[in-house]
Amino acid sequence: xxxxxxxxxxxxxxxxxxxxxxxxxxxxxxxxxxxxxxxxxxxxxxxxxxxxxxxxxxxxxxxxxxxxxxxxxxxxxxxxxxxxxxxxxxxxxxxxx
Length: 97
Prior knowledge:
By secondary structure, this protein is α+β, with helices and mostly antiparallel strands. It has a domain at 36-94. It has two helices and five strands. It has helices spanning 7-24, 62-75; strands at residues 36-41, 44-49, 57-59, 79-83, 89-94. It is elongated and about 60 Å long.
């Protein structure tokens, strides 16, 4: 860790302050994640991209939703997070290179 008298200390502090401000303003402060979540939905199951507010698609069966989420994750070198009906995480499949 840099000493308070060094320039790097102040640069790091300003970065932390800016990042906190940006998060408060709703600005994304980290790179977009393409991870896909298979979650329970009123129509059965849905795919929701990590950090997204809207669903990508809905399905009657969880297995169909998982297949589609896997295709999306493979295309973006991401992961699929499969949830149980109660919302807890059941499994995670990573396609990261």
